[in-house]
């Protein structure tokens, strides 16, 4: 009997050692060795796992130990190649493709990823306001941008609907969908924020989406109506055109729309034949605008974001926007929308930026005025501005469950094409996408505008709250209807 007990114990010990030796087995972690930021994150999660993703080839075979993840560029002009993740190997995969295997939550996830930095403008800029040395704006060409090589998009377990949007720099940072919900993944950082040098066994935290609350939009104005004219002159409202291989930005669409309105107004004084011609012209205008729109975004991160994210801030902010851009490419939206980051502004000195406080309404108003002052002709132009802040924004002194705020239907208004989002981790991307939706004139999915007789409204991107039952990657029929009408 004693022999059997010892044999059983030995068997269990061997099994445990084998699991610990497995590179993608769940790992234990000591919180006293983690960065305080991630300790705080883990304390807020009701369910998470620690595991190590493994890079594999298309057949699922592990790569050599030195080609797992990319490293962020230390110097743009570095003579050596700092990207061991895509060093030549016996695999036939190219540098634009990557496959990873991850074991977590009792299942295996196989990632099939393709490089995708289309959400970053060819002439992307980073503006540092109030740095200790001096204010500066760094201009990056498509080849020079330090972080453009990081971003990938693809799917999980050969299911095209199970989207994955991941940065592969120094580990896997991003989100992915599965049959049982949405997951986030990020590499663990040590207490000194150093990257783990063990590329083959780099521990990550994987967790499911939580359920924060969103704030209703503040206005009900439609783009181009007389209800929200700001008194700006035509020159002040005119945007500099940015030509990308013949593609048109949202500002160009607005110019075309205004031109068509003027043409129809002139023909309105004619006879019945003229009226018929006007209707035909309107229909042709709708069809002519049924092409890809490029919405140029200025992303602004405040000083609280710097204090929280440190040197990883730019990488983190762009990772959020890569997720936002992917959400706007989901076919359920019914339109070709390209979210493109043209400028990332990092505010080191609060005096250089907008006044940000707990009051959500006031903060939004201040930010809208500030971003408009930065959108001068001849400078770096944007169609809309997004503020990401670590400030706890509130509807009132005792209601601080607000995560984002924007006005309804103001994307074409240069003064009020702006939104604010409170940073609470990677799920902030869903908040940003939601608030941008309000600018496109989309109401909440449970709004009276979206109710159908006898039909329970499903909750998608424009759901008033983000919970386990929400589908934050997809758009409701109501959202599709309102954005289509807005663009036409």
Task: Give an overview in words.
With 488 residues, this protein is an alpha+beta fold. It has one domain (31-61, 96-211, 289-487): 3-Layer(aba) Sandwich (Collagenase (Catalytic Domain)). The chain contains ten helices and 16 strands. The chain has helices spanning 2-21, 36-44, 234-237, 250-267, 272-288, 303-309, 313-327, 360-373, 428-439, 477-487; strands at 48-51, 54-56, 97-104, 107-115, 120-129, 136-139, 151-156, 159-167, 173-178, 181-187, 204-208, 293-301, 337-347, 384-389, 404-406, 418-422. The strands form two sheets. Strands 1-11-10-9-8-7-4-3-2 form a nine-stranded antiparallel sheet. A seven-stranded mixed sheet has the order 6-5-13-12-14-16-15, with helices on both faces. A hairpin with a 2-residue loop joins strand 3 and strand 4 (107-115). The longest helix is centred in the N-terminal third of the chain and has 20 residues, at 2-21. The termini are far apart.
- What is the class in the CATH system? Alpha Beta
Unreliable residue runs:
3-26, 73-94, 219-247, 256-289
- How many beta strands in the DSSP annotation? 16
Broad shape: globular
Q: Output the CATH topology.
A: Collagenase (Catalytic Domain)
Radius of gyration of CA atoms, rounded to a whole number? 25 Å
Q: Structural class of the helix and strand makeup?
A: alpha+beta
Helix content: 25-40%
Task: Give the second-level CATH assignment, the architecture.
Answer: 3-Layer(aba) Sandwich
Strand coverage percent: 15-25%
Number of helices, counting only DSSP H or I runs of 4 residues or more: 10
| Total domain modules | 1
> What strand order characterises the main sheet?
1-11-10-9-8-7-4-3-2
What characterizes the major β-sheet?
Answer: 9 strands, antiparallel
The succession of helices and strands, N to C, reads HHEEEEEEEEEEEHHHEHHEHEEEHH
